[in-house]
């Protein structure tokens, strides 16, 4: 087994105690001490549409469209509750100090690796542990970043996990950061909108269709 495979295996198997108060504290630190002061507020007007208090009652899957590297911060900001993030396994490499540093930090933020080609047993078990710890679970059903303003190529893995965990899905629509802005004098608008919960008891196609339509409506993107 290669060093990267061992690294991936290490982070893909987390238990409930790995999702704890320190994880949530680090998430708040990353949001308010790192993201907002250095990448967010100086360059963007960030607006939340919806009531984040509606997400307090019980864990759910926060299923957001994926348009930038800011999305994880924005999804967490939409709830401010503890969140576990499913991240592509390519982020959990260990071939250099920088890769090790990135992997270690996103793991501290509650992220764990997922194979986007197939849903593995370790992913399901870790997702179950996160829900057990009463963390929301953030999933990007489109997989990779999509900047073409189209809602397409949806992976049904988030539906499978929702049904296994017996938790509802809450769509999160993100728009305005399809391209990055670094001008202090010409701020761009970012909208983060909380959608209506989708019951995990519905059939797969209905859930996916509902999610796609809600995201398209919230973002103004084309429903491809």
Question: Can you walk me through this structure?
Answer:
The chain is built from seven helices and nine strands. The chain has 224 residues and is of the alpha/beta class. It has one domain: 3-Layer(aba) Sandwich (Glycerol-3-phosphate (1)-acyltransferase). The chain has a seven-stranded mixed sheet with strand order 1-8-7-2-5-3-4, with helices on both faces. Helix 4 links the parallel strand 3 and strand 4.
Features:
224 residues, alpha/beta, Glycerol-3-phosphate (1)-acyltransferase, seven-stranded mixed sheet, 9 strands, 39% helix, 19% strand
Question: What is the gist of this entry?
Answer:
This protein is an alpha/beta fold and about 220 residues long.
Q: Could you say how many structural domains there are in total? A: 1
Give the end-to-end Cα distance, rounded to a whole number of Å: 41 Å
| Shape, per Cα inertia axes | globular
- Average pLDDT, all residues: 92
Element pattern in H and E: HHEEHEHEHEEHEEHE
Q: Could you give the order of strands across the largest sheet?
A: 1-8-7-2-5-3-4
Q: How do the helices and strands line up, and which of them pair or pack?
A:
Elements: H1 3-12, H2 21-40, E1 44-49, E2 61-64, H3 71-79, E3 83-88, H4 97-108, E4 111-114, H5 121-132, E5 136-139, E6 150-151, H6 157-165, E7 169-175, E8 188-194, H7 204-219, E9 222-223
Parallel strand pairs: 1-8, 2-5, 2-7, 3-4, 3-5, 6-9
Antiparallel strand pairs: 7-8
């Amino acid at each position: 087994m290669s060093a990267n495979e061992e690294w991936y295996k290490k982070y893909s198997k987390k238990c409930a105690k790995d999702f704890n108060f320190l994880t949530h504290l680090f998430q708040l630190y990353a949001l308010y001490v790192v993201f907002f002061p250095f990448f967010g507020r100086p360059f963007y007007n960030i607006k939340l549409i919806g009531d984040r208090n509606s997400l307090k009652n019980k864990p759910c899957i926060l299923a957001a469209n994926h348009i930038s590297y800011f999305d994880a911060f924005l999804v967490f900001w939409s709830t401010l509750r503890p969140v576990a993030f499913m991240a592509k396994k390519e982020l959990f490499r260990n071939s250099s100090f920088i890769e090790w540093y990135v992997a270690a930090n996103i793991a501290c933020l509650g992220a764990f690796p997922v194979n986007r080609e197939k849903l593995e047993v370790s992913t399901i078990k870790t997702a179950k542990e996160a829900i057990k710890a009463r963390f929301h679970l953030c999933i990007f059903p489109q997989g990779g970043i999509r900047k073409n303003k189209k809602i397409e190529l949806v992976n049904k893995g988030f539906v499978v996990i929702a049904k296994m965990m017996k938790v509802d899905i809450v769509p999160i629509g993100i728009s305005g950061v399809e391209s990055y802005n670094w001008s202090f004098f010409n701020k761009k608008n970012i909208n983060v909108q909380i959608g209506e919960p989708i019951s995990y008891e519905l059939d797969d196609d209905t859930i996916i269709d509902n999610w796609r339509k809600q995201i398209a409506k919230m973002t103004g993107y084309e429903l491809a």
